[in-house]
Amino acid sequence: MFKNVFSVEGRIRRTEFALSYLIYFGVLLFTVILAGVTKLALFYILVVIAWFAGVIFRVMQGAKRCHDLGNSGWFQFIPFYFIVMVFVDGERGTNRYGSNPKNIESYNTINEIGKKEF
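-> structure tokens emitted (118 positions)
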């Protein structure tokens, strides 16, 4: 989990996607509170840096989540597609963006009963 977070290569699960958003909002909230309490210009600059880095981080993680669904990373900019990214399970097996992060094969195991030779 959380390998190459600033890369758009590969696929991520819903759990990693949701955790990345929680981490982003936690860091941003912490820096905003810190800036509000101290009222120092340095911390306001830190808020802007955290926000900018967070936007890049969220776009990269969103692209990987779109890849898990079998779509281009540009799909994350469709309004309300975020709901699909959070609640819909990714494609089973390997797609053109990489292997399944859940390590679930693309075949239905019930159909394989009795067909394997030992």
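The two ends are 35 Å apart (CA to CA).
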